[in-house]
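By way of example, what follows is a protein record of this kind.
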Amino acid sequence: MSRAGAILRRAAGAGELVVNERFVSHQGEGPSQGRAAVFVRLGGCNLACAGWPCDTPQTWRWDDHDPAEELHPTPVAELATWVLAQSPGMVVITGGEPLMQQRQLVPLVRVLYEAGRRVEFETNGTLAPLPEIAAAAAQFTVSPKLASSGEQAGRRIRHDVLAVFADTRKAVFKFVVSDGPEGADWAELAELVESHQLAPVWVMPQGTTSEEVLAGAQALAAPAAEHGWHVSLRLQVLLGVR
Protein backbone atom coordinates (compact mmCIF):
# COMPACT_ATOMS: atom_id res chain seq x y z
CA MET A 1 0.00 0.00 0.00
CA SER A 2 1.24 3.50 -0.80
CA ARG A 3 1.99 6.00 1.97
CA ALA A 4 -1.00 8.09 0.88
CA GLY A 5 -3.25 5.03 0.91
CA ALA A 6 -2.06 4.10 4.38
CA ILE A 7 -2.79 7.61 5.69
CA LEU A 8 -6.29 7.56 4.21
CA ARG A 9 -7.05 4.09 5.55
CA ARG A 10 -5.83 4.87 9.08
CA ALA A 11 -7.88 8.07 9.16
CA ALA A 12 -11.00 6.26 7.96
CA GLY A 13 -10.55 3.67 10.70
CA ALA A 14 -10.30 6.44 13.28
CA GLY A 15 -13.29 8.34 11.90
CA GLU A 16 -11.04 11.24 10.91
CA LEU A 17 -10.96 13.29 7.73
CA VAL A 18 -7.77 13.62 5.71
CA VAL A 19 -7.47 17.33 4.99
CA ASN A 20 -5.07 18.91 2.53
CA GLU A 21 -5.85 22.51 3.46
CA ARG A 22 -8.56 24.75 4.92
CA PHE A 23 -8.93 28.46 4.30
CA VAL A 24 -11.33 31.35 3.76
CA SER A 25 -11.61 32.93 0.33
CA HIS A 26 -14.18 33.52 -2.43
CA GLN A 27 -15.69 30.84 -4.61
CA GLY A 28 -13.99 31.20 -7.97
CA GLU A 29 -16.13 29.04 -10.23
CA GLY A 30 -19.70 28.15 -11.11
CA PRO A 31 -23.00 29.61 -9.90
CA SER A 32 -21.66 30.66 -6.49
CA GLN A 33 -18.75 32.57 -8.03
CA GLY A 34 -17.72 35.57 -5.96
CA ARG A 35 -19.36 34.42 -2.72
CA ALA A 36 -17.26 34.39 0.44
CA ALA A 37 -16.74 30.82 1.59
CA VAL A 38 -14.90 28.54 3.96
CA PHE A 39 -13.01 25.92 1.97
CA VAL A 40 -12.19 22.45 3.25
CA ARG A 41 -9.97 20.70 0.73
CA LEU A 42 -9.68 16.98 1.32
CA GLY A 43 -6.81 14.79 0.21
CA GLY A 44 -6.96 11.96 -2.29
CA CYS A 45 -8.46 11.58 -5.75
CA ASN A 46 -9.73 8.59 -7.70
CA LEU A 47 -8.68 10.09 -11.05
CA ALA A 48 -5.25 11.02 -12.38
CA CYS A 49 -5.83 13.63 -15.08
CA ALA A 50 -2.67 14.21 -17.08
CA GLY A 51 -3.98 15.97 -20.16
CA TRP A 52 -3.94 19.46 -18.62
CA PRO A 53 -2.60 21.02 -15.41
CA CYS A 54 -4.58 19.91 -12.35
CA ASP A 55 -5.42 22.78 -9.99
CA THR A 56 -4.66 20.67 -6.93
CA PRO A 57 -1.94 18.10 -7.72
CA GLN A 58 -0.83 18.22 -4.09
CA THR A 59 -3.94 16.23 -3.14
CA TRP A 60 -3.10 13.14 -5.20
CA ARG A 61 0.10 13.30 -7.28
CA TRP A 62 2.78 11.68 -5.16
CA ASP A 63 5.64 11.55 -7.65
CA ASP A 64 6.31 15.23 -6.95
CA HIS A 65 4.45 15.83 -3.66
CA ASP A 66 4.96 14.26 -0.24
CA PRO A 67 1.75 12.79 1.26
CA ALA A 68 3.23 13.12 4.75
CA GLU A 69 3.29 16.90 4.23
CA GLU A 70 0.06 17.26 2.26
CA LEU A 71 -2.35 14.88 4.04
CA HIS A 72 -3.43 15.82 7.55
CA PRO A 73 -5.74 13.44 9.46
CA THR A 74 -8.09 15.67 11.44
CA PRO A 75 -10.82 14.79 13.96
CA VAL A 76 -14.27 15.79 12.71
CA ALA A 77 -15.06 17.73 15.89
CA GLU A 78 -11.88 19.80 15.53
CA LEU A 79 -12.65 20.59 11.91
CA ALA A 80 -16.27 21.50 12.67
CA THR A 81 -15.17 23.86 15.44
CA TRP A 82 -12.75 25.59 13.10
CA VAL A 83 -15.29 25.94 10.28
CA LEU A 84 -17.98 27.36 12.58
CA ALA A 85 -15.52 29.92 13.94
CA GLN A 86 -15.16 31.46 10.45
CA SER A 87 -17.41 34.27 9.24
CA PRO A 88 -18.73 33.06 5.85
CA GLY A 89 -22.01 31.20 5.94
CA MET A 90 -21.08 29.04 2.94
CA VAL A 91 -18.80 26.02 3.21
CA VAL A 92 -17.24 24.41 0.15
CA ILE A 93 -16.02 20.85 0.57
CA THR A 94 -13.64 20.06 -2.25
CA GLY A 95 -10.54 18.10 -3.14
CA GLY A 96 -9.13 16.05 -4.75
CA GLU A 97 -12.32 14.05 -4.71
CA PRO A 98 -14.13 14.69 -1.42
CA LEU A 99 -16.69 11.91 -1.79
CA MET A 100 -13.91 9.36 -1.35
CA GLN A 101 -14.25 10.23 2.36
CA GLN A 102 -17.98 10.73 2.52
CA ARG A 103 -18.64 8.30 5.36
CA GLN A 104 -16.41 10.39 7.61
CA LEU A 105 -18.02 13.52 6.15
CA VAL A 106 -21.53 12.62 7.31
CA PRO A 107 -21.12 13.87 10.93
CA LEU A 108 -19.37 17.06 9.78
CA VAL A 109 -22.04 17.90 7.23
CA ARG A 110 -24.78 17.24 9.78
CA VAL A 111 -23.21 19.65 12.26
CA LEU A 112 -22.82 22.35 9.61
CA TYR A 113 -26.36 21.84 8.33
CA GLU A 114 -27.82 22.07 11.84
CA ALA A 115 -25.80 25.25 12.41
CA GLY A 116 -27.44 26.82 9.36
CA ARG A 117 -24.38 26.75 7.11
CA ARG A 118 -24.80 26.29 3.37
CA VAL A 119 -22.70 23.30 2.36
CA GLU A 120 -21.60 22.88 -1.26
CA PHE A 121 -19.59 19.98 -2.65
CA GLU A 122 -17.22 20.03 -5.62
CA THR A 123 -16.97 16.56 -7.14
CA ASN A 124 -15.85 14.89 -10.35
CA GLY A 125 -19.13 12.97 -10.60
CA THR A 126 -17.76 9.44 -10.38
CA LEU A 127 -18.96 8.60 -6.84
CA ALA A 128 -22.63 8.75 -5.88
CA PRO A 129 -23.40 10.66 -2.67
CA LEU A 130 -24.71 8.83 0.37
CA PRO A 131 -28.33 9.70 1.22
CA GLU A 132 -27.17 11.51 4.37
CA ILE A 133 -24.82 13.67 2.31
CA ALA A 134 -27.45 14.41 -0.32
CA ALA A 135 -29.97 15.42 2.34
CA ALA A 136 -27.68 17.94 4.03
CA ALA A 137 -25.94 19.37 0.97
CA ALA A 138 -27.26 22.59 -0.52
CA GLN A 139 -25.50 22.04 -3.85
CA PHE A 140 -23.27 19.63 -5.72
CA THR A 141 -21.05 21.21 -8.34
CA VAL A 142 -20.45 18.17 -10.50
CA SER A 143 -17.53 18.48 -12.90
CA PRO A 144 -17.17 15.41 -15.13
CA LYS A 145 -13.81 15.30 -16.86
CA LEU A 146 -13.81 15.46 -20.65
CA ALA A 147 -11.45 13.90 -23.21
CA SER A 148 -8.77 16.56 -22.87
CA SER A 149 -8.23 15.56 -19.23
CA GLY A 150 -6.25 12.58 -20.46
CA GLU A 151 -8.11 10.18 -18.16
CA GLN A 152 -9.74 7.02 -19.55
CA ALA A 153 -13.39 7.46 -20.48
CA GLY A 154 -14.52 4.50 -18.40
CA ARG A 155 -12.95 6.01 -15.29
CA ARG A 156 -13.93 9.65 -15.70
CA ILE A 157 -17.53 9.23 -16.89
CA ARG A 158 -19.95 7.19 -14.77
CA HIS A 159 -23.34 7.40 -16.41
CA ASP A 160 -25.14 5.79 -13.48
CA VAL A 161 -23.61 8.28 -11.04
CA LEU A 162 -24.50 11.28 -13.21
CA ALA A 163 -28.10 10.07 -13.13
CA VAL A 164 -27.99 9.94 -9.33
CA PHE A 165 -26.74 13.51 -9.12
CA ALA A 166 -29.38 14.71 -11.59
CA ASP A 167 -32.06 13.05 -9.47
CA THR A 168 -30.99 14.96 -6.34
CA ARG A 169 -32.21 18.22 -7.93
CA LYS A 170 -29.27 19.82 -6.11
CA ALA A 171 -26.64 19.41 -8.80
CA VAL A 172 -25.17 21.87 -11.26
CA PHE A 173 -22.89 20.50 -13.96
CA LYS A 174 -19.64 22.33 -14.72
CA PHE A 175 -17.36 21.26 -17.56
CA VAL A 176 -13.79 22.39 -18.17
CA VAL A 177 -13.53 22.81 -21.94
CA SER A 178 -10.21 22.97 -23.77
CA ASP A 179 -11.53 23.53 -27.30
CA GLY A 180 -14.32 25.24 -29.24
CA PRO A 181 -17.58 24.00 -30.79
CA GLU A 182 -15.73 21.91 -33.39
CA GLY A 183 -13.57 20.06 -30.87
CA ALA A 184 -13.75 16.71 -29.06
CA ASP A 185 -14.48 18.24 -25.65
CA TRP A 186 -17.44 20.18 -26.97
CA ALA A 187 -18.89 17.16 -28.79
CA GLU A 188 -18.60 14.98 -25.69
CA LEU A 189 -20.11 17.70 -23.51
CA ALA A 190 -23.11 18.09 -25.83
CA GLU A 191 -23.66 14.32 -25.90
CA LEU A 192 -23.54 14.00 -22.12
CA VAL A 193 -25.93 16.90 -21.60
CA GLU A 194 -28.38 15.50 -24.13
CA SER A 195 -28.23 11.86 -23.02
CA HIS A 196 -28.67 12.66 -19.32
CA GLN A 197 -30.70 15.86 -19.65
CA LEU A 198 -28.18 17.62 -17.43
CA ALA A 199 -29.14 21.08 -16.18
CA PRO A 200 -28.08 23.68 -15.36
CA VAL A 201 -24.81 23.50 -17.28
CA TRP A 202 -21.78 25.73 -16.86
CA VAL A 203 -18.80 25.70 -19.20
CA MET A 204 -15.43 26.97 -18.07
CA PRO A 205 -12.20 27.44 -20.01
CA GLN A 206 -9.04 25.62 -19.11
CA GLY A 207 -6.36 28.13 -18.16
CA THR A 208 -3.77 28.95 -15.53
CA THR A 209 -3.26 32.64 -16.39
CA SER A 210 -5.66 35.58 -16.56
CA GLU A 211 -5.00 35.90 -20.28
CA GLU A 212 -5.84 32.25 -20.95
CA VAL A 213 -8.99 32.35 -18.83
CA LEU A 214 -10.36 35.54 -20.39
CA ALA A 215 -9.56 34.46 -23.94
CA GLY A 216 -11.13 31.05 -23.34
CA ALA A 217 -14.27 32.54 -21.80
CA GLN A 218 -14.67 34.93 -24.71
CA ALA A 219 -14.43 32.04 -27.16
CA LEU A 220 -17.01 29.98 -25.25
CA ALA A 221 -19.55 32.74 -24.61
CA ALA A 222 -21.49 32.79 -27.89
CA PRO A 223 -21.70 29.02 -28.56
CA ALA A 224 -22.61 28.36 -24.92
CA ALA A 225 -25.44 30.88 -25.10
CA GLU A 226 -26.82 29.12 -28.18
CA HIS A 227 -27.22 25.97 -26.07
CA GLY A 228 -28.60 27.84 -23.05
CA TRP A 229 -25.45 27.04 -21.06
CA HIS A 230 -23.76 29.39 -18.61
CA VAL A 231 -20.12 30.50 -18.69
CA SER A 232 -17.90 30.42 -15.62
CA LEU A 233 -14.65 32.26 -15.16
CA ARG A 234 -11.86 31.10 -12.86
CA LEU A 235 -11.95 33.96 -10.38
CA GLN A 236 -9.12 32.57 -8.29
CA VAL A 237 -6.84 32.83 -11.34
CA LEU A 238 -8.00 36.35 -12.22
CA LEU A 239 -7.58 37.61 -8.65
CA GLY A 240 -4.48 35.62 -7.80
CA VAL A 241 -6.04 34.02 -4.70
CA ARG A 242 -6.77 30.46 -3.59
In short: The CA atoms of residues 48 and 233 lie 23 Å apart. The first helix runs from residue 3 to 13. The two ends are 31 Å apart (CA to CA). Strands lie at 16-26, 36-42, 72-75, 90-94, 118-123, 139-142, 171-177, 201-205, 230-231.
